[in-house]
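Input sequence (566 aa), recorded before submission:
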Amino acid sequence: MNSLSNTSLENATKKRSKINRSRIVISNKVIAFQEILALKESKRSARKTADFLEVPNSTMHSWRGQKKAGDLDELEDFFSRPVGAVFLQRVVLAALKLAKCGLSGIAGMQKFLHDSQLDLFVASSTGALHNCWIRCENHLIQFGEREEARLAKGMPERKITMGLDEMFRARLPCLVAMEAVSNYIFLEKFTKDRTTETWKIELENRMKGLSFKIDTVVSDLCGALTCLTKSICATHSPDLFHGQHEISKATSASLASQERAAKKALDKAEEGLKKLVEKPRRIIKEESRKQKEEITTLQKKCDDLKIEHEKKKEHREKARAANKEMGKIYHPIDLENGSLQSSESIEEKFNEQLNTIEGYVQEAKLSESSFRRIEKAKRAFKLMVIYFKNFLLVFCAFLTDMNLSAEQALFFKEIVFPLCYLQVIWKRFSKKEKEKYMPLLQALQLKFQIAPWLEELKIEWMLKGTELAEIFQRSTSFIEGRNGSLSLLHHRLHRLGERSLKVLSIVHNFDTRRKDGTTAAERLFKGRHENLFESLVSNVRIPGRPSRQRHDQEKRLMGWEKRLAA
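Predicted structure, token format:
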């Protein structure tokens, strides 16, 4: 293939390399530009002045136009000056250094103040910073209690799904209760034990004054939590992960060990066969015949071991695939076609996969503990089927309350709810799964768009469908993630008292925001609340300017005397 002419390359304009200037250089050039233009004897235009400062006129114009009108005019002016630019540089880098590789707590704050030179204006002693944080904690606790009471006032009674779990640190259980849909933390508290009675007392004390009723509890198969669910007349939704985890513990390690043993035996036999073939015995005819018989026997043994290894490998892979399939089954809709599933079909699919796994366990002749774990997993999946039956009853009651016609109810059941459920769980899919289920999602969206209903009705039905989809909870991953965060905080701070836990819960509820900009409190109470950080800024006093101590002056004088003597 002939190459193209170089003419086009010669005539093409070369792209300028981008020049990155620091804030200090920018502020100096802007000030110099303004001062040159202000000189009476200077008759240069703005363009010539910009050329004189070796800056394109458009760039200078954009620099000067970056100032935004509003309440931050003075701050904008300060950071536009060289001294402000230097200060901003120090503060940002000091904060970044602290966040990435610095200490935590009071010591980390002291280092930040020192690196940013703010310790010249803010007292950075341990006592001053500790007292400041006490004031912050008091305000945060008051803020959380005040805003929760205000948002809960006048709310009608609502049924919620609560995730319950424990985190163990310092040999004590920390009871954690979190609402599943909004991720609002109701309870985080270290107690002496985790019995049903302790759970009940703590939850009752926490839910006083709030118009929420725990309708569903999502948790593992802990006996205390199961008894608690029955005592408060709630529905128990077993965590899918723990059922799959029991199967994994029953099969994965044992089957993998058998596979490795079969592979090791096969490798050993193949190595022996290779050595036997490479050294033929030709001196004595009887020895040569004997060697051929040995090679034939060893070859047959290698073939048998290879078949055995492939069998063991197949058992492990199919058991793992069957366990993974349990997660794909446990959805209110069939992910293959989008239709609403029945409890009978889910139970049948569960039993099919469990029987497959149990068959591999029996064939592999695993230990008694593996069979006990399989039986425990069976009980968990049986409880999941019971929960799904209750969900279908809720689904029917939900449809009845909406007062839809037969045609509208069918549309909601076949199009709206599957579409809403797919959208709710879409972010949890892997890239490969998204590619697989994208045709189903697009088909449902198309059917929804072309349906002959008013847009107002469609929007209302989508909101109802999303609410119904969020009722179905099959995992405690939201609360497990919180337990992981608490574990890291406990490791970092060495201890977490009741007061510290309360502050952390309030910050999570009222300050941590999702991508849509909402906090957990806003999602739970369906209302706006005051900005937590702005409230801190407005109401909490920071340490004052550090006083110059006498010993500091003496040290400074001694330093000057040494310099003069040198």
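Checked by second reader. The chain has 22 helices and five strands.
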